[in-house]
Structures are given as C-alpha cells and as structure tokens.
Specification:
single chain; Glutaredoxin; 6 strands
C-alpha cells in the first residue's frame, strides 16, 4: 500500500484552460445541431472518443506537486510507492470518454504497474451527479476487497459507461456478485460513513486541483485533459523513466 506525505495546497493554474476546452466543446455541439443532428450526447451515452490530443501546459508552472494527490493507506492506489512514474486519474463512472480510455489504455498502464515502473492513483470526481457518487462508493468498497480493477472493468464493460438506472445500489451489488466479491461485506462497506467520506475527499481533491472535466490526468505532476491516445501515455512514461 502506498504511503505518502500530507497534501499540499496549489493554485488552480489550469482552470482557464479547462474553461476554454469546455467552451470549445459547446461550440462543437452547436455546430452539430446546426447540421441536423437530433441531440448532443448526454451523461451516460457513449459517443465516439475525440481523437484530438489536448495537452495542458503552463510554461511558468508546468508541474503540480504529486504529494497534492497522495494519501496513506489508499485502496485505490496500485503500484509500488517508489515507482519512477505516478499517474493520477480523475474519472467518473458515467463518463463515456473515461470508459473508452479504460478499455483502450488502462491495460497498458497496468503492465507498467506490474513491472514496477508506474503507480496509479484513481480518483472519482463524480461530475455527472448522484449516480456517479453511488458508483464511486461501490468501487471503493470493491477496492477494500482488493478487487478495484475487476469491479472497475465490470462498470465500464465493453468500454461503455452505465446509465444511471444501472448504477443503483441493487445493480451495483449485482456487479459485485459478478466479480466474486463478498456481497455482505461489499454492502456494508458501500454504505459505510468512512466510504462516503473517502469518496467526497477524492472528489474534492479533483476539483481543488481544477479537474472539472473527465478524464483528467496528472503524470508525474504534468496534466493532460481528455481521453488521450495510449501512445501519449506510453511516450510520457518512457521519457519519465529515462529521466530518473
């Protein structure tokens, strides 16, 4: 289990860039509607991932102190504490782009974890609302039984997010049974006050750092926004490994 220093406070230096990205997305949706499309994608739908790479970089403050995201005894952290590279993922279980990234890129990231080159810290920011919060509690409960990735894969099965109706406590408990969890313990942990507090803390951590859209990533303190292609992460990890 990874153990780190206490969190530090940082300025929200990338918020203006995220606002620009959101504005650009809204303009794109307006243009789509003008061409005759019925409606824009909504939370829980699964549009095709945007292949455009958006790398956020402030030349005067390009890095974020990684200790800002670290917590002691965190069940959502995987990989050695002394790994040369740390990847923090801010996600949401109703986010179609998070689902696509989990299918296409996460398996390669887990290979780096197995090799001892990468530590992943997973954070649900729950920008889609209450169903996402419930799913985050369920994922945290699964992580307490050391089955975070198995449960994560079930919620993002086939690279698609679940609809809110598929993220009810009943549906999430069925998913727990599917991946072989102790359902009684899962239910207890999912409803525990400590789980709710951990989920709220993770969400606050994301918004405090400016992660208002999903997925957002910090790779050794360097931010990336959006469902980046796998090669973007592979290249960044290899470069970071080489510099250590």
């Amino acid at each position: 289990m990874a153990k780190h220093a206490a969190p530090r406070v940082h300025v929200r230096w990338w918020i203006p860039l995220l606002v620009i990205a959101v504005a650009a997305s809204l303009i794109a949706l307006i243009l789509v509607n003008d061409t005759g499309e019925d409606s824009a994608p909504t939370a829980g739908s699964a549009p095709e991932p945007n292949p455009v790479v958006t790398e956020v970089e402030d030349p005067e403050q390009a890095d974020v102190d990684q200790d800002a995201t670290a917590k002691d005894d965190d069940p959502l952290t995987d990989g050695p504490s002394d790994a040369p590279v740390t990847l923090v993922v801010f996600s949401d279980y109703q986010c179609p782009f998070c689902a696509a990234w989990s299918k296409d890129t996460l398996p390669k990231m887990l290979e780096y974890v197995e090799d001892g080159d990468l530590r992943i810290e997973w954070r649900e920011v729950n920008v889609f609302g209450s169903a996402s919060v419930q799913a985050a509690k369920a994922a945290y409960a699964a992580a307490l039984q050391d089955k975070h990735w198995e449960y994560h894969a079930e919620l993002f099965k086939d690279g698609e997010p679940r609809s809110p109706s598929e993220l009810t406590p009943e549906a999430l408990t069925e998913a727990a049974e599917t991946v072989g969890l102790d359902v009684d313990q899962f239910t207890k942990d999912m409803n525990a006050k400590s789980t709710a507090e951990a989920v709220a803390e993770n969400a606050a951590m994301g918004t405090d750092l400016g992660a208002f859209s999903t997925p957002t990533f910090l790779l050794n303190g360097h931010p990336y926004v959006g469902a980046q292609p796998t090669d973007v992460f592979v290249d960044a990890i290899e470069e970071a490994k080489g510099s250590n």
